[in-house]
Amino acid sequence: MGSKRTTIYVCMGTSCDARKSRRLQEAFSRALKDKGLHDEIDVSATSCLGYCDEGPNILIEPENLMYHNLNEEDVPFFIEEHFIKGNRLENYILAPGNGELKIPDMTDINFFKHQRLVVLRNRGRLEPDSIDEYIAMDGYAALSKVLEEYTPESIIVEIIDSGLRGRGGAGFPTGRKWQICRNAPGNEKYIVCNADEGDPGAFMDRSILESDPHAVIEGMIIGARAIGANQGFVYIRDEYPLAVQRIKKAIQQAEDYGLLGDHILGSDFSFTLKIVRGAGAFVCGEETALLASIEGKVGRPRQRPPFPVIKGLWRKPTNINNVETWANVPHIIRNGAKWFSNIGTAKSKGTKIFSLVGKVTNTGLVEVPMGITLREVIFDIGAGIPGDKKFKAVQIGGPSGGCLPDKMLDIPIDYDQLVQAGAMMGSGGLIVMDETTCMVDLAKYFTKFLYEESCGKCWSCREGLRRMLEILTKITEGKAKEEDLDTLRDLAEMTKYASMCGLGQTAANPVLSTLKYFEKEYILHVRYKRCPAKVCKALINFYVIPERCTGCMRCVAACPTGAITGPRSEPHNIDQSKCIKCRACYEICKFNAIEDVIVDAIVIK
Amino acid sequence: MEATQLEQIVLENGASRNGIIAMLQEIQSRENYLSEDNLSYLSDRLDIPLIDLYGIASFYKSFSMTPVGDNIIHVCLGTACHVRGAEPILEEIERKLDIKAGETTPDNKFTLKTVNCLGACALGPIVLINGRYFGNTSMQKVTDILQQYGYIAEVAPETT
Amino acid sequence: MIKFKLNGLEVQVEEGTTLLEAAHFYGFPVPTLCYHEGLSNWGGCRLCIVELKQGNQSRIVSSCTYLAQNDLNVFTNSEKVVKIRKTIIETMLATVPTSKIVQDLASKYGVHRVRVAVENKDCLLCGLCTRMCIEQMDGKAIGLVGRGDSLKITTAFDKRSDTCRLCGGCIYICPACQIRCIGPNIEKDGPICNACANLEPPCLDQFENMMCYMDPCVACEIGTEKPVKSKL
User: A279 and chain C: CB distance < 8 Å anywhere?
Assistant: First the structure.
């Protein structure tokens, strides 16, 4: 937060960081100094702005202007134009999405317009490495309110009244969980923050930890106070180096300010927080496996009951919530349960953060009120499918969630509605797929993922997934018979019902949901040996359509095996014996001249 | 690794079972793999059966029991990267380096690994080499990227 | 004492009793494979699954790891349980067709077809040998290594273990190599044998007695194609 006339916020989320936003920030500082503007204009690092697709992003305040795609080299020119001459550089301004306004304010951009920020309210407005900035934004106000005005019981009542449900998957009411843990026998209790965000395509928790680590810490201190725990753990995924670094620093700062440690803010309450880094195992997102991992064991889930809230870490009552759940807590305390319960639907309160990725125009992080429809998220915020491709499905809830087709897009986002539709809230990954995604291949991808990530203990999970993978592979290779689909269903049923933990019980969802909504595509593979999305290698043959080919040679250059030949300006030819069906030519061709002729004939019929 | 270094790692992590994963992470980050000698030391020091340590080390994906190459390539196979075509890129790297995922080139220059989502899905498909992100990669960019790390491309055969 | 319903029967057991122990105590046969009285309960093979019903909600759990609790409503042979158990046995049979124990289970529970690819592995990864090694023999030599697709049972670094005394406990307890089924000619006849176990009523090894005077015999009916539904 600058005390100067203008502040340039440079996004430092993982995506922008990877696009060298750090060097961009340095370039800004340098250039401002050169022009003698450094007393007037501040440059500040900030947390993820959420619009990851167009990074590196910068936000200029107080104008509320967002620029994107800036290079280091452009900076001096940019400063000259924007700040000295007062010209706005349209090339770099984020387009509003409807093509009308030329100089958009951030709130005019469709991507931001439909969002409702609660947990991410500080995004782009504070430097995540600074506790002072967090405090200036009312940070830790909820904590001092709790320590002065609340008893542990009244904190729990507040959380129960708010209707907050766990944001990690099943949606258990958070307040009730805290209550059970508080009432569990034993003096020593623990709380854990599950930051082992293993769902591929989901990065909500990473972003929260990178953007606003103190909100998570504050939530945890409040939770510890309510439950009666004096020790907490943050179990964080090791693949997120930036998040690990930020939360580490934040804990250090909180300790220095007396917000963690003995006698917090002069009260009789003491609480310490420790970081445990995961070591790369998806199953450790399951709470009993996570606890085993903290105890230094193999992360294998165990039978519940006893539930962790009764017997958890070292057999002591342990309350586990995920990052987003903890980050909601300070806002509920500060604004009151009533405020929170006014957002959302009857049974799902508040907002939910989704990472919107895949074949969607605007990739990024979105926070929306519960009850919004999937269609609004994908088509209004995400601006639909890029190119002139058609929407096919959206995968919600991570690998063990479900794939929903177009006709299910109008259901409101809410824990119970999604389960009814055969998917689940999960932690909040939304992966959009267009017509070029093969649903059988996708089911195979998830099944393989889960098979590799299964701890391997239960026969039903390990072997169920292996055998499903065997059949799915047969289908994608065109070797399956129609009765194999029944076997697939039986195996899915075994996996779903007979496995012990959440991973196994949901591991069949990718197969079951694609079989439910995309059975036709399975039938095409099995009966006609064709893959309409042109993905399954054994079922496709690429040919050049001579009438469409202009002989531009782009595909010749793209082909990794030299299978395409032909002189310039004449139709090319694909040598089928050399073709590895990598789709490079199909995707690079601008004239739709590369097609699988037989597939199209069947699909049209 | 010297016994004194190992002992220091043990002490820094509480010298008990609870810190075992942190100890293994520390050894892994210093030596890039977990050697039998190092695990045996921990086994004796903490009185944990060697097979248990081996079980833990083999369960978690971030540990390696064999030495890795000078450059570690991670190809993200998260869902977002998958639907944007990560597999052909992995296959292309496999072809170029003539190794499979999980293997190291004979000259010890490259180790190829896969990862299930780096959480930077907007950049997909992503290739990560020694901690540096290469976003929006394509099959055509693979050679360029590898060359930055000392890969020498074979001369492409003449096409007619 | 814990009071609950087992196949419709009001039963009571001491606290800490598993559902499997309770079922066996009350004479309800529940098949097991990775379970052994002298070893810790693992819950890996999932053969001992039972259904817990509460109103119109139902859950399936492994009875060997689930402790009896008040007011449970447990069914050891519901339609769902019987169907899933058959799928489990079917996949086991396809994986390890030379295990006599698995062949016997297939006969007993009416598994007459195998719809997945037949392999000829010799390990079910049930973990009996690893538990035998550490819990009974203090061997600490073998263990479960890896996970998911790479899970296997081996020694540390795949080398001969210093702590192994070659006691043979692991071989003794192994359901796949302890007694090998020499019946089926896998290449010719497929993986199902049915040669020896078919003739034996299932109650015989349960009660060491023929129980045929109990007509209809519950235990026998389980061995047939039809699942027992409402008799209990």
Answer: no
Domain boundaries, chain C: 1-77, 128-173
Q: In whole angstroms, what is the distance from residue A321 CA to residue A190 CA? A: 12
Chain A, 456-475: which have a CB under 8 Å from a chain C CB?
Answer: 456-460, 462-464, 466-467, 470-471
Domain A351-434: assigned CATH number:
3.10.20.600
CATH topology assigned to domain C1-77:
Ubiquitin-like (UB roll) (3.10.20)
At the topology level of CATH, where does A439-527 sit?
Answer: de novo design (two linked rop proteins) (1.20.1440)
> What is the per-residue pLDDT across A142-193, written as a single tens digit (0 to 9) for each?
999 999 999 999 999 999 999 999 988 778 999 999 999 999 999 999 999 9
DSSP character string of A543-579? EE-TTT-----HHHHH-TT--EE--TTS--EE-TTT-
| Residues of chain A positioned with their CB less than 8 A from the CB of C67 | 305
Q: What are the tens digits of pLDDT across the range B70-88?
A: 899 999 988 888 878 888 8
**pLDDT tops 70 at residue A265:** yes
Residue A590: its pLDDT value, please?
A: 86
Residues of B in contact with A282 (CB under 8 A): 116
pLDDT grade for A487, boundaries at 50, 70 and 90: very high
Q: Which CATH class is domain A131-340?
A: alpha beta
Thinking of the domain A541-601, which architecture would CATH place it in?
A: 2-Layer Sandwich (3.30)
Chains that touch B (3 or more CB pairs under 8 A): A, C
Pair A404, A421: CB distance under 8 Å? yes
Contacts of C157 in chain B (CB under 8 A): 36, 54, 65
CA distance A348 to A346: 6
Q: Given this model, what pLDDT does residue A199 score?
A: 83
CATH code: domain A6-109 is 3.40.30.10
Indicate the pLDDT class of residue C74, thresholds 50, 70 and 90.
Answer: very high
Taking contacts as CB-CB distances below 8 angstroms, the residues of chain A near B144 are: none
Contact partners for chain C, using 3 or more CB pairs closer than 8 A, are A, B
This model of the complex carries an ipTM of 0.86
* First-to-final CA distance of chain C: 23
Cβ–Cβ of B50/C150 closer than 8 Å? no
Beta bridge partners of residue C105, listed in sequence order: none
Instruction: Report the topology of domain C128-173.
Output: Alpha-Beta Plaits (3.30.70)
**DSSP letters spanning A367-395:** EEETT-BHHIIIIIIS-S-STTPPEEEEE
